[in-house]
Amino acid sequence: MIIGGDLNENIYSSTNSQRKTVISNFMSEHKLSTVECGITFILPSGQAMSAIDYILFQDHYKENVIKIEKQEINSNVSDHTPLMLSLKCDISFKKMKELTNTKNLKVNWNKVDKNEYKTLIDDKLEKIKPISEKLNLYQAFDELNKILSDTISKIAPRKRKGKKKKKLPVMNDEILHAVKRKKTAFYIWKQQGRPKEPGNFYLKEKTITTYDLRKLCRKEKH
């Protein structure tokens, strides 16, 4: 088991808190360890900082953990510094192929012809032997799952692929700062209940920061 994320607590600090106690007990119960990487969170105002992001791994993974380190990425617009875990692992070609071929089909049953689905399933089930006659129970389940999967893949509506959101064509320190201001303004506006009154301060801030960012991008592009 490997867990990574914002624990909202400096587990290496000398002070004790209820949250730190809960995390420590959880780590002890599941035999989890981690590596101290230093400061990982800085408030946008720069008035506070802390180490609250960690990657936890079970003790029996220790020999496979190469390193855990902070990643200084110029395009990172988050208040958190990302961490990267380098891990020794062995993924054979066969396993990679199995993972690649795994289907994860989400079906909107409101758009499926259920009568056609039932007819196709019944037709295929009539052609296979009863499970009681199977020597291998797992093989029987695999065969049944394949019938269900193939049938729904055949009649389910094709999902339309949406267009990927374009990334910013340019990036520099000024634009990076503008992105942070825009995100902060949007977050505060959302926290205030998404006000839509034209004179609302938070709506104005959101609009202005968006305009400033677009203006900088156009300026840099030309």
Automatic annotation (TrEMBL):
Give the top-rank taxon of the lineage listed in the UniProt record for this protein: Eukaryota
What InterPro entries does this protein's entry cite? Endo/exonu/phosph_ase_sf
What is the designated name of this protein?
A: Endonuclease/exonuclease/phosphatase domain-containing protein
Q: Which organism is it from?
A: Mytilus edulis (Blue mussel)
